[in-house]
Model the fold of this input.
Amino acid sequence: MIEIVNGRVFVEGKETVDTNLIGYAVLDVAENSVIKSDSPKKIVNPKINTKVVHSKTKDAFNVIGTSLGNKYKIARIPYIDIGPEKKEALNHALFISMCFNNSDSLMDFLNKSTNDNSLQEFITTK
Done:
């Protein structure tokens, strides 16, 4: 069991600094979180273009910014090189990159959905 307590990651009751396990814990929290319908109003459009590259030193895909002067590494999606996890990690990285590269459209959708209360319906039906 992996859990986050007070900003620390624990695996079966023992604290870990393993970046792969920390990544899985964060993804688990993100997948099980509920988006509040007013949260898009608080989101700032980052307007960063990104691309996906494979890490040179780790079993992970990196989402990196392509513009000079902006944040370089946006996200790291680790995987364990067993079965379909590598493909799943690549799909997650591509999705994150797509969200950044289409942030104007995504923000328009979130703001429109929030204004007509359909965002909550969209979240609960997907």
